[in-house]
Amino acid sequence: MSGFFSFDQESRDSSFEDEGCIPALSFKERMIGFLTCFGLSIFIDVISIGSMFGILTGNPTRFALSYTMSNILALIGSGFLLGFKKQMKSAFDEKRRWTSAIFFVSMIMTLVSVLYFQIGLMILVFIIIQVCAYIWYMASYFPWGREILLKCLKKCCGKCVDES
């Protein structure tokens, strides 16, 4: 039995054939790659919750490192699911180009800040940029996602302005 839902190792998905360094993968292999990366990403996120206290005490290093590594694993996992080339094309299409660039640069700068500069405020700024860029990026995949998000922000900010 071959096709999209085939778990046969010999059945290769042709969408992965032009991936360059990644060979064509079967549906089963893609699912294993996705679920492994996704599972590790969730595991790291759960563990990083304990280190969020470090943000409040002025030492966001552990949280920043685990949060960024979790995001990287999640991106790799979705690459297995969609195909890495297709994922990059989608991430850098006209609608998401700037958001993707900001997200990737903020992840890199978070790691550089953690591993090289080790300045708590700098790390925190890059975490915040990373979180905001990720939310904005993900909202672009849902119909009217960004519009709904903007309306919610305007409503919240409007209430904050009205209260002060």
From TrEMBL:
Membrane topology: Multi-pass membrane protein
Origin superkingdom: Eukaryota
InterPro entries from the UniProt entry: Vesicle_transpt_Got1/SFT2 (IPR007305), Vesicle_transpt_SFT2 (IPR011691)
Pfam families noted in UniProt: Got1 (PF04178)
Keywords assigned by UniProt, alphabetized: Membrane, Protein transport, Transmembrane, Transmembrane helix, Transport
Gene Ontology CC, one term: cytoplasm
GO biological process: protein transport; vesicle-mediated transport
Record localization: Membrane
Keyword Amino-acid biosynthesis annotated: no
TM ranges: 32-57, 63-84, 96-117, 123-144
Family under the similarity heading: Belongs to the SFT2 family.
Name of this chain's protein: Vesicle transport protein
Organism in which the protein naturally occurs: Blepharisma stoltei
